[in-house]
Specification:
With 179 residues, the chain is of the alpha+beta class. The chain has a domain of 118 residues: Aminopeptidase, CATH 3.40.630.30. It contains four helices and eight strands, in the order ββααβββαβαββ. Strands 1-2-3-4-5-6-8-7 form an eight-stranded mixed β-sheet, with helices on both faces. Strand 4 and strand 5 form a beta hairpin. The longest helix has 16 residues. The radius of gyration is 15 Å and the shape is globular. The mean pLDDT is 88.
Amino acid sequence: MAVAEFWTLGGITHRMKITDGGLDDLRVQKLLAHHFSSARAETAPGSAHALDLSGLKSPDVHFWSAWDGDTVIGIGALKRLSESHGEIKSMHTEQAYRRSGVGSAMLKHIIAEARKIGLSRLSLETGSWPYFDPARELYARHRFVECPPFGSYVADPNSVFMTLELPPNTALEPTPTAP
C-alpha cells in the first residue's frame, strides 16, 4: 500500500509516496547504511541501537520507505514488542530533505499503522547527544514524552527514551511550534 503526501521544498511542491518495504532496493539499502553508520558514529560505544538490514528483516518489524519520484527520501520501521506495545526504529530522512516534513509524514504513518494493528503504546530510543536534538524535537512535536527504559533497554546517559499513549480512535496532531 502506498500513501501520498504533498509537501513543499525550495518553493516547489513535491508528491511523496510512503510504501511498504523496500529493503531489497539498493537505494533504500544505501540510505539505511548511511543511517546505521552515522548513528553509530554519533553515539558512544555500546549505546547505539539502530537496526541493520538483517534486523529490519525480522518478522516482528514492519518497514516503510518514502519516495520523491525515484528518489528514496526517508525510512522508518515499527517493531512489535507485545500485543499492545511497539517501538519506532530506523527513522531517517535523506539530508537534502530534512526539515521539509518527510520525517513528520513518516512518523504520522507509523503512528497510524500502530493504531491499525491495535497497539496502545508506541515508544522509541534515541541519542542524548546534540546530533539527535532534531529527532527528539520531532518526537516531542508529535506528543511523545520522555519515559524510563522499556523492553530490554537499560538506563544509559547516552540514550533518551520516549513514549506515546495511543488512545483508541483519537487523532493526535503535532503540537504547534511557536514562531
